[in-house]
Description:
- The protein is α/β, with parallel strands linked by helices.
- It has a single domain, classed as Response regulator (Rossmann fold, 3-Layer(aba) Sandwich), CATH 3.40.50.
- Helix content is 45%, strand content 19%.
- It has a five-stranded parallel sheet with strand order 2-1-3-4-5, sandwiched between helices.
- Helix 3 (49-58) runs parallel beside helix 4 (77-87).
- It is globular.
- It starts with 6 loop residues before the first helix and ends with a helix.
Amino acid sequence: MTTQIDDEFTSWMAGQVFMVVEDMSSARMLEASLLRGLGAKKVMAATDGADALAKLDAAEHAPDIIISDWMMPGVDGLALLEGTKKKFPAVKFIMLTAKTDLDDVRQAREKGVDGYIAKPFTKETLVAALRKLI
């Protein structure tokens, strides 16, 4: 399946501020690179949930979209989701994880997740999740 990236999608991507939260540096760099390849101009990165919360507290403006791993040491993705939605309810939050149990998905939805991508993921899966936010 080939993903069609049209001008409208690329323009939308360019106008969004992203935060990638991932404790594995190689995965974090790959995710940020994919976003930039799709047209994102502003991609912030955080090494885990605690780092992300600190950056959100210090930021003048919250990012538009957070893409976060679920399983991280300390503050995990679910706790980050909950903290983000309490302080910045308008931020769109996509959970990126190997956790695909229905109870886990339900738990994330109850906390306000806007998208859910199962690992391993493809560029097409990422684009589909992002298109749902438009």
